[in-house]
Amino acid sequence: MKPMLSHAKTRTGPCRGYDAFVELIQKVDRPVVLLEGSRDVPLEIQGRMEQLAARLMRTFPHLVARSGNADGSDQAWAR
What are the pLDDT digits (tens) for 5-43? Predict the structure, then answer.
């Protein structure tokens, strides 16, 4: 069975941080990550979200990142 992340848990137990995230991503041929958050996000935080999303995509080029494309955090992740 392929690992799945959902609300900071895996199917086998709680998520253990970045190292566990990397391990899970590397085990899957086409990993999908849902990037979510609040619609009311300060601009400073949106900038950090953009930086994190860019880093994730550079680090894991096979990663598929999804969001709902709503105002706020969803759009910050997508930028």
Answer: 444 455 566 667 888 888 888 888 899 888 777 788 888
In one letter, which amino acid is 74?
D
8 A C-beta contact, residue 69 and residue 78: yes
**Which stretches of 1-79 are DSSP H helices?**
18-27, 43-59, 73-78
Single-letter residue type at 33: V
State if pTM tops 0.85: no
Tell me the HSE value of 53 on the side-chain side, using a 13 A CA sphere: 22
Q: Which residues contact 31 (CB under 8 A, 6 or more apart)?
A: 24, 25, 60, 62, 63, 64
